[in-house]
What we know:
heterodimer, A: alpha/beta, 5-stranded mixed sheet, 29 strands, 22% helix, elongated, B: alpha/beta, 6-stranded mixed sheet, two-stranded antiparallel sheet, 18% strand, globular
Amino acid sequence: MNFASPAFLAALGLILPVVAAFLVKQRRRIVRVSSTLLWRSAALTRSKNRRLRDLHRLLALAACVLGVAALSLAASKPSLGRSPGATVFVVDVSASMDAGGRASPLSRARTELSKFVARRPGGHRYALVAAGASPVTLAGLTDSDETLSAALGRLRAERGSSDLPAAVRLASALAAGEPGGRVVLFSDGVERINDLAGESKVPLTQRHLSTPALDNVGLVSLSLHTPRDSAGAGERDLRASIATSSSRERRVRVVVSSGGVELARRALTLRPQGEADLSMRVESAGSELRARVEPDDGIEDVLPGDDEASVVDEAVTMPRAWIFQHPPPADDTEASEPSDVFFVRKALLAAGVNEVYALSYRSGPRWAEIRPNDVIVAVGSFAPPRRAVAPMLFVGSSAGQLPVTGLRSIERAAGDTRLRSVETGDPLLEGVSLDEVTVEQAFATKTVPEGAKALVEFEGGAAVLRGGVGPEAWIYLGLVPTKSDVVLRVAFPVLVANAVSLLSGVRSHVVAETLPRSEVLLQSAPLAAVAPEPPPGWLPGLRPSALWAAFAVALLGVEGLAHRKGRALS
Amino acid sequence: MSASPAAEEPAGAAVANESEPFWTPNDMAALGRLSVLARRLAPSLWRGRRRARRVGGGSELVDTRPYSLGDDPREIAWHVYARLDRLVVRVRADEMPLRVALVVDASASMGHGRPSKLRQAARVAAGLAAVALAADDRVAAVVAGAAGGALATSGGRAALPKLLSWLGTLRPAGQADLVGAAAAASAASRGRALCIFVSDFLCPEGSLAGPRAARSRGHDVALVQVLDPSELDPADPGDVDLEDEETGEVITLRAGTALAAYRAALAAHQAALEAGATEIGAPLLTVRSDEPFEDVVSRAMRRGLLRAGGAR
Lengths: 570, 312
């Protein structure tokens, strides 16, 4: 046991006068009388006989001594269990943690942490990490209640998602090496499903703060594209996705403005906990375009931070795209074009690629026309050999000269196409929402090439990867356009546009920074594979010192009651 | 109670073994005087007590005797008065000698004091027995205490020495069971009697339980309360614990107010005792343990303690 205020242990010396008073009282003379009947009205205490009287006094002495000792212990603030110890608290400060005002998960986390600080066992140190887009240490390991309270006051929700694995790694580094070190995570869930326990070198405990069922609408994506058929230099295609967390149908209006001048206004209807896409042609020409979502049905919007986004238009020169398909089409008409090629071509055009050419094994001389900043897009199961040095985009390829090995077909029926993780922070997936995308079939691998990065993982393996640099850069999309509804969503042209931008270094579109879909939907899911037990010193009721104080009061009350009643305790 | 330095007093000794002899020649002379007095006062003492005990009459008229104050006026023979100008009362055949049952409390509390309350109780009982025997009444004795014991009804000249010898063996011990003693008195007296309870009546369970029991059995009851001077007017005990000689109870006194509280409790106890005695029609006499027993018996005779009747 350790003591936070050991000086109060000196109060144990008060036991001496108590014992002395007892000994003095024990020496009281006993006078025998014929009857104590008439003396009872003047009696302080009565005992059936001497033995019981002595026992009563002894018990009263014991209660008094123990009461004084318990009070002294209580004042000295003892601590039980493992001590000294170190606990690092990680608090998710993503946007959804601020939904609900006073009842928001962040407010509840702040309240609970305040109680932790108040009940901190003596010798135990706490630290505080805010888990936002980049984790920040608000307070290092300290036993100063003032420092911890000040750090709690600096907890603020950010406009964005949280990088919990990075925050857990940071907290783990703080707690590692400390005796009894552990990490406690406060979160309303994760945007992407991940196993955080593996990120921590010390025991990890979670405190799941569920988000109340609230009504929220917000922008989940906003991008600006240069249309192929633009009538003027300033014409742009504005694409937006709006989502709602409400369990009822919502009506909203989207207002697009530039420089304070309203350019367009659209009304949308959102299904419960659903999403709606918006596409409109606007005139911007190098200015900032702002889109704002407003409820149009009188229902509240608990998270205002996700209602607005802005993009700055940038003029660019788009690369050329070469679509390789094998076997080659019978002719060059669009009618003979396979469906997957069709979708990819449309996506390239939507991405602002003005020149799209067909390529096949029979193309021969055309291979020589490919420039290093062009993009070769292999659509279909067979990928071409590298006859030209240019970045390559593979869409649904499973054979041929591929940068990825170990590919296998994964089926929805087997549950292999269930989404497992998405690296939303990667530029390729910026503005791309793959939530609730239905994938009947895809190609995936369990083997990530060295130097490459897996960006989208299904249960059956990684289906979106990228690697290489410069003209040898590649992006592999294992999604089969005809076996998924992703081609019907805004996500696909954005994905293709991002791919073209990454591979060519040229951007034909601009994507605004918006909250992730899960934040707008206020999704709350318990973390997986994290120990549920509370941290040390977390007593649901009182601190040890308060327990000792209560014990002391009870003992002294018993002693006083026995004294007042004047009865033997037995 | 005296706050003497002696924390513990010796345990009760037999009354005959106390520092002073149980009976001295002076005491025997006093008993003799009481007997003579009793014979002389017998008619007035017993008159009014020797009435028919069977309700409804029908008893045989066997004699007359001169009228004494207190006689039932219905028994006056008016025809004799008319002829002789003398008041006489009829004597019925079923009048019988009075039985007296002495119940002596020999519990531990009676051993308190020097001389002990038990010694005084025994001497008072002996004096009352001498008076009763002198009037040709029959006397039985019962002791209420740990030892118990009873002396069956007897009368005549040999009865008093036998009683004195029996009383001399009493020693204070245990707790008094006056209810049980009342039952024993009924058995010892072989019939209805005048039960005289000689005790300090300091019983936590109820001082008059025994007398009430005797009354319920149809006996006449009289009470003689013996208290030590230290009980009637105690000194301030000081900062001590008190231990009950009889029950072993130990109490810690509240300093400063103990004496006043005791006096108030004594007054209340005595008032309750008197009220209870009145309720059961029992005369009550309170005596000190250092008071000459002859004076006590004389007072008892004047108070009518030995008369039967009273409120029924």
